[in-house]
Every structure is written in structure tokens, then in C-alpha cells.
Amino acid sequence: MPGPLPKYAITLTAEQVARLTQLSTSYSAPYAEVLRARMILLAYQHPDWRNAEIAREVACAVATVQRWRRRWQSTDSLHDAPRTGRRHAFTPRARAQTMAPACSPPHEDGKPLERGSDEKLATGAVAQQIGLSLSEKGNLCREAGEALIERLASNALTADDRCLLAKLITRHFSQILEDAPERETLLTPTAGVAQAKRAKHKKAMRSEAVRPATKALIEILHHKPHVYGINRSNWSYQSLADAYEKQYSQRMSTATVRRLLQEVGYRWKKSRKVLTSPDLHYRETVELVLSTLQSLQVDELFFFIDELGPLQVKRHGGRCYTPKGEMPTHPQIQPSKGSITLYGALSATTNQVTWFYGETKDTTAMIDLVEILFNQYHDKSRLSITWDAASWHRSHELVAWVDDFNARNKAHGPAPHIDLVPLPSSAQFLDVIEAVFSGMKRAVIHYSDYQSEEAMKSAISRHFQERNAFFKHNPRRAGKKIWQVDFFEDYNNLRAGNYREW
Question: Are 386 and 288 in contact, with CB atoms under 8 Å apart?
Fold first, then answer.
């Protein structure tokens, strides 16, 4: 490689070569010192190498190689330069009080945690007793850990060191060591290091029991945030962490809150709106509808009746395929080209739709629809009609007309008898024709731009004609769950808003 040789040549004695070789292959020494030892050895073994070649070999910056070549020539040391200021001096009693909670599970001290940290130890009871700050306690724990690593590397572990290693490996890597013979012979130095390496690359074993910290979070979830002085009506990860800190004097990150709750299967779910019926005779009314439906004879029909509209004749929004980066739009305010009101009746047994268009939703329109059904199915013995609890469906005028209509037909000879079987209040999901209307709107109303009422009516009529033809050639009853008697024995199954299932 072109360019001058490095300015600082490296010369080593046999003792220095042996020491640096041992350090460059050490697994317990600080990684920075291992890297520096490799730099110096390469510079000594290859005096013709430039700093860039050494940096490439050890994967570091060229400036780093230059700095440590210069440092070694002047000090023969690979340690960092002393920092400014005075380091804290710790008494043996302070060291013992700090290491005790670090070597035992936090929940033994009454804290619902599984593992400790410098911050959790410094905010605990020990810190209050001996008056250590977070940085002081962290420095003390690091000093004790470095001393332990040095004794491990030199194979000079004591019986207490072996017990401490066993606790640390068991707690931090979740290894189950229940069948060990004795604590003093639990781990040899090489076995302890190998077990720690394996634990880093394997997924830690999880206990079947719920973690204490998770139990504490679930307990908090069972209360409202205002109980913990938080001005919210619902929980968030941050508010849960704040409540946990207030309750247990331990700080927890939002990521930890999320992970602990997800481990036990907790997920965010949006509350679902359901209909509740004010009808005092709700069960009796539903039982009448179901019993009528289930007891139909061959010459009897059951109809679901409802209205739709008024539908404005204008440009409607809806789903459509669009190229990437484009967004279909439609005006929020636009002039209407007219409106239509649709009246429909769905046969429960034949799945055929009868429909017509009107002007308003009132009793007169319902009477017209009943007359259409009477004329269309004149050869049947009974026509049962069900609809929701709209005011024009249960008006005195309509009931009186049906009674008079049945009496006149009975006097003139055989004719279908009209039975009214209304649905209870707020039970629109039992009216199966709602699903038929919904499918029609998705097919011919959504993303439409009809120019006149006649165009919209033509599209709707064609949709129903094609639907009737399909079910005429492919017979199937209307609805699904509404035909399952056992399903309705549990009235909790009557979920609102899911009329597509009925």
C-alpha cells in the first residue's frame, strides 16, 4: 500500500507479547482492551502494515489505531486515561448492602419485579437506608462485578463467588437449577461461562405462573385511572406506567408495560355498540316471531318488510380500485337530482323480493304493499308479515284495515289470511330484509352517479330481478341463524347490528 510507514513503531518484550496475546483472546476482559491488544500485536508482528490495514483487520477507525499506537509507546498501557474528579469511596458495609438485593429476586423485598437494574436498586429501600444515589450505586455494582470477573478469569473463585454466579445466571438467563447437588459445587468457572453463553443464544424458559409485575398491572387495569389520581377515562401505556410508579415506587417503561400485558393475552379492543330494547315484552314478542316462522306450512308464507330511503340521486362515495397514489373523491355538498323511497318484502321460504317505489313512509304505503302481496300470492292460505316497531307499522289505522280486510276476504271465499307479527322495539337486526337492502346498496348505489330518479330505479329493479332469478334456480331460505331454534334459547346471542348473520 502506498504512503509512509506509521510514525510510532511498536517494540515488545517477550513478556509483553505473552500478556497481550492472552488479553487479545480473553472472553472476560473488557472488549475495548481486547481490541487494543490486537492492534498492538498486529503492529508488532507486521511492522510494514499501515494503520489503515490494521484498522481494517480489527474493524475500527484509523484514528483509533493511531491513538493507541501513540499511547502504547508513551505509557505501555491499554487502559483508559484517568477521568477528572474524585471517585467515590465505598465502605465494606455499603458494598454488602448494595450487593445483597442485586443477588436476590426483587419480589423478595416486596417489589413486584422479576429482575433488577441500577435504577430499581437505587430507588429501593437500600438506597434510602445507606443514602446512595443512582450513579453511586451503579459504580459500586460495576466495581464488584469487575472484581468477580477477574477472579473468574484467574480461576480463583471462592465458595461465595460460586453461589453468586449461580444466582446471577439463574436470575438473568432463567435457567432452572433445582436439581443441583450443592451450592458450593453448583458451577465451575468454565461451566458457568458456557452456560451463560448458551443462555444468550437460546430463548429463556418462561414460568407458567404470571409474573408479579404483570399481576400488579392487571390489578391496576381493574380500576379506573382516577383511582390513582390520573385525569383519564381510559388507560394508556403511559398512564399505566405512571399508576404503577405511584403504587409501587418503581418506574416502568411503556415498552415493558406493553410486553407484559401482551404476554398474558391482553390487547386493545374498541367497545362495541349494541342495541338494547325498551320493549317490556321483548322475549314474548321474539318467541312469537320464531314460533310462527318455524311452524310454517306448505301453503303459508312469511315476509320480512321494511322501507329504504329517501335515497338521494347524486354522486355517492364507495369502494373502488384505484392506482397507487390516487384517492377517489366525491363532493360533500352537491345538488340533488331527486330522491326515491323503496318499499320491499322478502319471503323467508322462497327468498324472493317484492318491491315498489313510493313518496313517503306512512301507513298508506304499508297497506299498498300488503295488497300487492295478497294479489301476488292469492293461492296461499296465510301470509304472515313482520316488520320493525316504526310508528306507521303499528298504527291503529293499519290494524283496523287488516282486520276489516281479513273479514271481507273470509266472507267472499277462500283467500290468504293476513297475520301481523311485529318485531320488538330496537330489534331491526332480526329483520332479514335489512341485509338484502345492504347488499343492493353495495351493488348499485355505492360509487354511483345516476343522472335521474328513473336511472336509479332501473338499476335497483334490475338488481332485484337478477336476485330473484338466481334464488328461483338455486332455492334457499332467507337468513341463517334465524332458522336455528337452539341458537335463540340463549337470548345473549341476539346481538345487535349483525343482521347479515340472520
Answer: no
pLDDT of residue 468: 92
| Percentage of the chain modeled with pLDDT above 90 | 8
- pLDDT tens for each residue of 282-329: 777 777 777 787 788 888 888 988 888 888 988 888 888 888 888 888
DSSP string, 199-219: HHHSPPPPPSSPPHHHHHHHH
Report field, pTM of the whole predicted structure over 0.90: no
**C-alpha cell belonging to residue 352:** 324472493
204-238 burial, b if ≥16 CB within 10 A, otherwise e? eeeeeeebbbbebbeebeeeebeebebeeeebebe
Name the pLDDT band for 497 (thresholds 50, 70, 90): very low
Helix, strand or coil, per DSSP, at residue 243:
helix
Helix H or strand E segment including 147: helix 134-153
For residue 469, count other CB atoms closer than 10 A to its CB: 11
- Banded model confidence at residue 240, pLDDT cuts 50, 70, 90: very high
249's grid cell: 415506587
Confirm if 435 and 304 have CB atoms less than 8 A apart: no
The span from the CA of 267 to the CA of 258, in Å, is: 9
Residue 58 corresponds to which cell in the numbers above?
480489527
**DSSP code at position 388:** -
DSSP 449: B
pLDDT of 435 higher than 60: yes
Q: Taking a C-beta distance cutoff of 8 angstroms, is the pair 168, 103 a contact?
A: yes
Mean pLDDT, all residues of the chain: 76
Count of C-beta atoms within a 10 Å radius of residue 120? 20
Mean pLDDT of the region 142-170: 59
Amino acid symbol at 158: T
Residue 144: all three cell numbers together = 464488584
